[in-house]
Task: inverse folding
């Protein structure tokens, strides 16, 4: 497909002073979807010590697609909430390939409220194609669960650092990404829906996913330029979990130094820009 005659000029205006992109947007999508050399639990355990997982939404079920609990970042207690795609076929089916159900979001909501009660900072680790769209999930309030989480995060008087470490799809990812800062790894993406879904809706042709990925501007580079994300961190592979700790610790210390009302005011102002 030929580019519009003004498209090259538009791209130059978007990234003044930045080098030419080295990879296509769809290559970023493929990297975001690729299996990691570490599991979600290894990522959590590299970030915090003595992680104690908490289960259930105190209403209906426990969702294995959302891992949440408390650990220690040196001498700071931290609530960590992560999406999990599973490590084998059985786990992937149980987690719907990383797509949480309503009770997963309600579990996250419960843990966030608990963190606010004790003024513990929250770190979310996001790798999900989106909320699970199954009949049972919809019947049990999938949309309401996501909305409740967003409303709560808007007023939560404790620091929230959201980190996209793989796929970040639609409201399913946004529900966990209402943070004081939003970071992305260089092997992640963040979008309103998948490129395949976008192409199917816009052009009635899912095979144009590569073209859709370019239009959607879902790469970390695109989103940093638009200030949707605040920082891009390099996923260094097997040692990334421990490397992430070194990046997160000073940021949480900075956020913890702010009074709760300032945190909330700044967080709301950040998202009102969009």
Result:
């Amino acid at each position: 497909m030929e580019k519009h005659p003004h498209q090259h000029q538009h791209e130059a205006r978007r990234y003044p002073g930045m080098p030419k992109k080295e990879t296509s947007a769809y290559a970023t999508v493929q990297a975001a979807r690729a299996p990691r050399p570490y599991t979600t639990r290894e990522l959590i355990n590299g970030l915090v010590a003595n992680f104690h997982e908490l289960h259930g939404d105190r209403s209906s079920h426990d969702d294995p697609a959302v891992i949440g609990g408390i650990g220690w970042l040196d001498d700071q207690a931290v609530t960590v909430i992560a999406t999990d795609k599973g490590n084998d076929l059985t786990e992937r089916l149980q987690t719907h390939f990383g797509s949480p159900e309503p009770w997963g979001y309600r579990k996250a909501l419960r843990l966030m409220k608990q963190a606010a009660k004790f003024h513990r900072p929250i770190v979310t680790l996001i790798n999900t194609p989106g909320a699970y769209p199954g009949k049972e999930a919809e019947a049990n309030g999938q949309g309401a669960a996501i909305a409740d989480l967003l409303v709560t995060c808007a007023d939560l008087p404790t620091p929230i650092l959201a980190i996209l470490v793989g796929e970040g799809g639609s409201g399913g990812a946004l529900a966990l990404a209402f943070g004081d800062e939003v970071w992305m790894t260089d092997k992640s993406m963040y979008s309103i829906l998948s490129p395949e879904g976008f192409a199917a809706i816009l052009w009635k042709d899912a095979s144009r996913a590569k073209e859709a990925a370019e239009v959607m501007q879902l790469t970390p580079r695109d989103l940093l330029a638009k200030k949707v994300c605040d920082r891009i961190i390099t996923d260094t592979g097997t040692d990334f979990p421990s490397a992430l700790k070194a990046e997160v610790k000073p940021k949480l210390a900075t956020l913890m130094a702010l009074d709760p009302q300032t945190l909330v005011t700044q967080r709301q102002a950040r998202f009102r820009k969009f």
About this structure: The radius of gyration is 18 Å. Strands lie at 49-54, 66-73, 76-83, 122-128, 160-168, 181-185, 231-233. DSSP finds 13 helices and seven strands in the chain. Residues 76 and 120 are 8 Å apart (CA to CA).
